[in-house]
Input
Amino acid sequence: MAIRIETKTMNATLIGKSHWWGAPDLPADTPYPTVTILGEDGNYEEPLTFICQVRCEEIAKFDFDHILPQTGMLYFFAPLDYFLGETDSPLDYHEPPVVLYTDNINDLHPYDIHWEGTSESIFREAEEMVFSLDNNKTGDGIRMLGEPYQDEVQEAHTGDVCLLQIDEEDRWGLRFYDCGMYYIFMHPDDLRKGHWGKAMGELFYY
Output
């Protein structure tokens, strides 16, 4: 079984709730994940693409084996700007994703980053996430806790937990080369111990 995710645009605020894209609602003492880029004028920090935040209590009823925390908030970041059409992005998909977790959801604030020299936010418009139980272990689309859609990815990550499967979506302009998917995995031992910094990324494409 897996958790299927659908998204839809919303006019209401999604602060403190599960949402896809948008700005992450991070605790005040949590820095935004970045990658160090070697530039012509020296090193600089490039923000990772914010994918989504998941309020754990919203998916707890589908997580029968209690693989994930039952409360708190999970955040997912990955180097996906290029695949969203930003072809000049310095992010390399080989850079590992970042998964953050907080058990304090009472004082969260949307992170604020603007394009250099402008007042325009770097973040896409947030979309509501709708969760449902998928009785199939594998499938296309956006999913959590299932098995990877491609056999090659399953074999490469035997024993790992698939935290997030990201499929292509024309509405977002999200495409992994000709066709593909992006995955975020963790080893079960790291997951149980809350070693979120050990998340692994896997890009499959044709």
Q: What stands out?
A: The chain is about 5% helix and 35% strand. The first helix runs from residue 151 to 156.
